[in-house]
Design a protein that fits this description.
Length: about 260
């Protein structure tokens, strides 16, 4: 099908409209001045954004989520890059099985992963903490960095490393001075994906969070059980907007093809 045909453009527009309509509804509902969540709003107000910013519980939860997501992204990116480099550049028997094992959390239900991690922590006597939460999130985020970096290393021209070695560069220097800069767009993309997966995760966080390590998605989930005001809509809008800006920044810095065209 021709991508420039009117039918293709119309179908694409309808798909985008279908995907974006719920987000637009939530964003508009967050501007409701009433004390209950309703659409469309009768009067517009930013009071619920102020409620979000002034609520200490949401501020602490946001801080925990940011700390966990940043740490998770760093760990998942380091481990994923090392594993992908070993699997793509030095194929060994059974490498395909190892790759599938590392990416298994992608096909497993998040509920199963969270429950399994809870059982493992219970057996080991691990109490809820930021470290235990990061370890759980790393399990979920690792497949995204492995897949991203594996594709980058599989398409990498190995003769560039050979040329560097010919000029006297040692393997470690070659990796950091030649290989890594050339795959840096994939490194940044993998880090952003890992951060987003960790920050928005709720299934693993529900099982592993404690009173002092409650993440923002878990706090939001607990809040809507007892309240029906537009605060959650305001928080959701802020998170969606921040995600969009992160993806847009990724596109502007490393490029995402024709995604925004």
């Amino acid at each position: 099908m021709n991508a420039r045909s009117p039918f293709f453009r119309a179908a694409t527009a309808l798909i985008y409209l279908f995907l974006l309509t719920p987000i637009l509804v939530v964003a508009i509902a967050s501007l409701n001045d009433a004390a209950s969540l309703a659409f469309p709003p009768k009067r517009l107000s930013l009071r619920w954004y102020g409620a979000f910013l002034s609520a200490g519980e949401f501020g602490r939860a946001t801080g925990v989520s940011l700390e966990v997501a940043i740490t998770t992204a760093a760990i998942a990116l380091a481990l994923g890059t090392a594993a992908a480099y070993a699997l793509a550049r030095a194929p060994v028997p059974g490498g395909f099985v190892v790759l599938q094992y590392l990416t298994a959390p992608l096909i497993l239900p998040a509920l199963v992963v969270g429950l399994a991690l809870l059982q493992v922590y219970s057996r080991l006597g691990v109490s809820p903490s930021v470290a235990s939460l990061v370890a759980g999130h790393a399990v979920v985020a690792l497949p995204y960095t492995v897949r991203t970096m594996y594709a980058a290393f599989a398409a990498y021209d190995g003769t560039l490393d050979d040329a560097a070695a010919t000029l006297g560069a040692r393997p470690l220097r070659t990796f950091f001075k030649v290989t890594l800069p050339l795959v840096m767009p994939s490194v940044i993309a993998g880090g952003v994906f890992a951060f987003a997966i960790s920050f928005s995760n709720i299934m693993v966080s529900v099982f592993l969070s404690g009173p002092s390590t409650t993440t923002l998605p878990v706090r939001m989930y607990n809040y809507i059980e007892f309240a029906n005001d537009p605060t959650i809509a305001a928080i959701s809008t802020v998170v969606v907007l921040a995600t969009f800006l992160a993806v847009w920044g990724l596109h502007r810095t490393v490029g995402l093809g024709g995604f925004f065209r």
